[in-house]
Amino acid sequence: MLAVETTSDWHLIHPGAQIGLLEISQVDNHHPCGALDERKATLADDLRRRYGHLSRTEIVNLPVMAAYVHYYKRFDKTYHVLLQLESIIHKGKNFPQVSPLVDANFMAELDTFALTASHDAAQLQAKLWIDVARPGDTLVQMGGAIKRIPPNDMIMRDEQAICCSILYGQDNRSPITPETTHVLYVTYAPPGVPSKAIHSYWQKVLEVVRLCSPQAIIEQQRILTAG
Mean pLDDT, to the nearest integer, of 139-146? Predict the structure, then answer.
């Protein structure tokens, strides 16, 4: 089980924020999971029924979504899950096919709006900290671009470097690959996102993981709260 701690700066700067940790081992991400296609189509149809008739203003004021939109506005950014949702409900796009573990995360994010990073646990260093970015901090994104992270953005770092930022996503060291057998899902919940959103995310993602990997084992499932 990975050791994850919090820093005093995170508690001071983001009181009321929460981090959901879901670590799962003995998963099979190497083979396609045929049952996922039907799940994706059903979820896409359900999202269109739930939100397709709403304007952007109405969507951004929905519970959970509103808290993320507020967080991103502090940094002059647009919450990317909002854009992804709109692409499905207004532009007719469907869920992509990447791998069972990645697809499980994307589906659960769109279903609950809860921002979550999915890491190959084997690529993370022994100890992790939930922290805030400081002046000069940078992140090497999955595509290789180097981003300077605005101070006070919520991040996760290990003993080597920053692994993830709310604003700029995951690093290029720990993305899930077909060979991943041990995964860490980290849900970043700014103040205003209730813990039930994290629990709902866990339920949704575990349904898909267990569908494709019935032998999966939960190593840890807990919430860290700033305050």
Answer: 91
The domain spans of the chain are 3-225
Asked if 23 and 216 count as a contact pair (C-beta separation under 8 A), the reply is: no
- From the centroid of its chain, how far is CA 73? 18
User: How would DSSP label each residue in 29-62?
Assistant: -SS--THHHHHHHHHHHHHHHHHTT--HHHHHTS
The pTM (predicted TM-score) of the whole model is 0.95
E strand or H helix at 129, and its extent?
strand 127-132
Whether 180 contacts 3, CB under 8 Å: no
Percent helix / strand / coil, the chain, rounded to 5: 35, 25, 35
The CATH homologous superfamily of the domain defined by 3-225: Phenylalanyl-trna Synthetase, Chain B, domain 3 (3.50.40.10)
